[in-house]
From TrEMBL:
Family of the protein in this entry: Belongs to the major facilitator superfamily. Sugar transporter (TC 2.A.1.1) family.
GO CC annotation terms, alphabetical: membrane
Residues in Major facilitator superfamily (MFS) profile domain copies: 20-472
Organism: Papaver nudicaule (Iceland poppy)
Membrane topology (UniProt): Multi-pass membrane protein
NCBIfam families: SP
Keyword annotations of the record: Membrane, Sugar transport, Symport, Transmembrane, Transmembrane helix, Transport
The protein's name in its UniProt record: Major facilitator superfamily (MFS) profile domain-containing protein
GO molecular function: monosaccharide transmembrane transporter activity; symporter activity
């Protein structure tokens, strides 16, 4: 069994794989762009004055309201969160498209719909156009996030799968950085139209993904799953692996596809079977834990948070650029180490790096930022900025990339598409909940919000330590072995499957 677990196929990382995965990873760039752009424009005064005048007046004129409550508006949070509820619904449609027609069509739909949403948002004349544009962006994100991690995981050689699939989240951080730099520049444009340029600039990566998707090869896994001639799958496999010696990997793909079709079940009831309990648990727990790290509080509302503690509009946006740079640079640590030291150690190290700064930020804000007192001095404000950078570093080496990598590699072929859809849909649902409730939570919990998220980081780090097996270097079609060897999950995987796996 251990020999199968460490089984390696022939082949290498070819230019063909790298170029294909870079184009596909633009789906992550779009996701990151949206995470970064929405927080920036909601801190721009012309944008608030046009679409959210009540928040603008409260920020400028109301001295009776708590410092923690100046931005508390359900309509303002709806601007951010509407994208994610639309993405949640779209991800289930994307599952059917990805299974029936392949990974490429979902990627194409994602890019094209995001492009349409970008155009509508940039041209918005009223709140209804603005929100509908966000809904279209959400459909694009739902399709791209469902298909791209699967695509990259299936294209990558097993021993480099972690590094290549983490490219998705690297592009998420690059998208955030791109958005932060745009916001920092457009905020200075006179006349109050900077927010339109910020929203419009999403068209560039959306065009790259839409046009590039026409030239992407379909994955061998998808070709075999959909009953395409195995010789075509073999040709693609030879091209992406850079060798003619692909028969062993091809045989495993064909065998996995055969198992996935016998007996025939609809994938949703199938994933509810006892033998898939470990994978289903991870598909639910991982996206939940990723959101209760509190990262999207930083992604969505960092400019508002930095303004709350006393930084000016320009300084707040510059601070967000800095946190974006920290996150992007930290991603390279994961790419270089994930296939060497493994997933579990990075999860645990990242958990410690997130837990300590959150407690420290909560303590500083509780001590120095009252309801109606003057805002923090620059010394304390910049201390909060440094701690948030450390927190972002911890997330970027752990729950950022690994929460996309691990679900993309643990599902057997027969439940892979529905499993990824559940992972993406729940991620978007939890993102919606956090985005929609954070400003109200900040108003009511005040500095305690950081203790709230810090407590969850402690819990999720324990979850990884006890319940998540290591997946590094395990071929994607042999991943079922890690559950049969795990001290807890082996009780859910029946002996029948164990015997079949040893044949």
């Amino acid at each position: 069994m251990s020999s199968d677990r460490n089984k390696q196929y022939s082949g290498r990382v070819t230019k063909y794989v790298i170029l294909s995965c870079m184009v596909a990873a633009m789906g992550g760039f779009l996701f990151g762009y949206d995470l970064g752009i929405s927080g920036g424009v909601t801190s721009m005064e012309p944008f608030l004055k046009k679409f959210f005048p009540k928040v603008y007046r409260r920020m400028k004129e109301d001295t009776s309201i708590s410092n923690y409550c100046k931005y508390d508006s359900m309509l303002l949070t709806l601007f951010t969160s509407s994208l994610y509820i639309a993405g949640l619904v779209a991800s289930f449609f994307a599952s059917s498209v990805t299974s029936a027609f392949g990974r490429k069509p979902s990627i194409l739909i994602g890019g094209a719909t995001f492009l349409a949403g970008t155009a509508l948002g940039a041209a918005a004349a009223n709140i209804y156009m603005l929100i509908f544009g966000r809904v279209l962006l959400g459909v694009g994100v739902g399709f791209a996030n469902q298909a791209v991690p699967l695509y990259m995981s299936e294209m990558a050689p097993a021993r480099y799968r972690g590094a290549i699939t983490n490219g998705f989240h690297l592009f998420v951080h690059l998208g955030i950085l791109y958005a932060n730099l745009i916001n920092f520049g457009t905020e200075k444009i006179k006349g109050g139209s900077g927010w339109r340029i910020s929203l419009a600039m999403g068209a560039i990566p959306a065009l790259v993904l839409t046009i590039g998707s026409f030239f992407l090869p379909e994955t061998p896994n998808s070709l075999i799953q959909r009953g395409v001639d195995s010789q075509k799958a073999k040709q693609v496999l030879r091209k992406v692996r850079g060798t003619a010696d692909v028969q062993v990997e091809l045989d495993d793909l064909i065998n996995a596809s055969s198992v996935s079709k016998t007996p025939s079940h609809h994938p949703l009831p199938q994933i509810l079977q006892r033998k898939y309990r470990p994978q289903l648990t991870m598909a639910i727990a991982i996206p939940f834990f990723q959101q209760v790290t509190g990262i999207n509080v930083i992604a969505f509302y960092a400019p508002l948070l930095f303004r709350t503690i006393g930084l000016g509009e320009s300084a707040a946006l510059l601070s967000v650029v800095l946190t974006g740079l920290v996150g992007t640079c930290s991603e390279f640590i994961t790419i270089l180490t994930v296939d060497k030291i493994g997933r579990r150690p990075l999860f645990i190290i990242g958990g410690v790096l997130m837990f300590i700064p959150q407690l420290a930020v909560g303590a500083i804000m509780a001590y120095k930022l009252g309801d109606h007192t003057e805002l923090m001095t620059n010394g304390y404000a910049y201390s909060v900025l440094v701690l948030i950078c450390l927190y972002v570093c911890g997330f970027a080496i752990s729950w950022g990339p690994l929460a996309w990598l691990v679900p993309s590699e643990i599902f057997p072929l027969e439940i892979r598409s529905i499993g990824q859809s559940i992972n993406v849909a729940l991620g978007l649902m939890f993102t919606f909940v956090i985005a929609q409730t954070f400003l109200a939570m900040l108003c009511h919990l005040k500095a305690g919000i950081f203790f709230f998220f810090g407590g969850w980081v402690f819990v999720m780090t324990g979850f990884v330590y006890f319940l998540l097996p290591e997946t590094k270097n395990v071929p994607i079609e042999k991943m079922d072995m890690i559950w049969r060897q795990h001290w807890f999950w082996k009780r859910f995987v029946g002996k029948e499957e164990e015997g079949a796996g040893n044949q």
